[in-house]
Amino acid sequence: MARVEDALLPLINLVFLLLMFFIVAGELADEPLPELPATTRAPERQAPQADLVVDARGNWLVAGAALGKAGLLDRLPPPQTQKPLKIAVDRGIAMAELEVLMKVLEQGGYSEVLLLTEPGE
Asked: Can you tell me the distance from the alpha carbon of 51 to that of 104, in angstroms, rounded to the nearest whole number?
């Protein structure tokens, strides 16, 4: 009849071999672990530096003033080929709503626009 100690002997051998493996593997690594980057506080959100802002409600804002199709082109800087118009758009705006804005800008002579986005969180 087999004793309980005889059944535990392979388990003890396995644990001993694993222990030896990790001791040897730890000795082989000469380089220390890399330093963890210091945690910094997230910077406060700033208003984007844009010529035109489209907020979450779909309002078109130039210098903080909400404008419609009629007054938008009068308040924007004139179209320039060297400097595209900067547009900051809220992430909740649908592309269909942006198409209306892009058509108005195209009619106003803006051939190049720069769409500003926020980094993902």
From this structure: 15
Q: Does residue 121 lie within any of the structural domains?
A: no
Q: Enter the pTM of the model.
A: 0.55
Q: Establish if 6 belongs to a structural domain.
A: no
Residue 87 placed within a domain: yes
- Per-residue confidence of the chain (121 residues) as pLDDT tens digits? 567 777 888 899 999 999 998 888 776 656 666 776 766 665 666 655 787 888 888 888 888 778 777 788 888 888 877 888 888 888 888 888 888 888 888 888 888 888 887 665 5
96 part of a folded domain: yes
Rounded CA separation 19/54 (Å): 61
63: Cβ contacts below 8 Å, ≥ 6 apart: 75
Q: Is 72 exposed, middle or buried (0-12, 13-18, 19+ CB in 10 A)?
A: middle
Domain count, the chain: 1
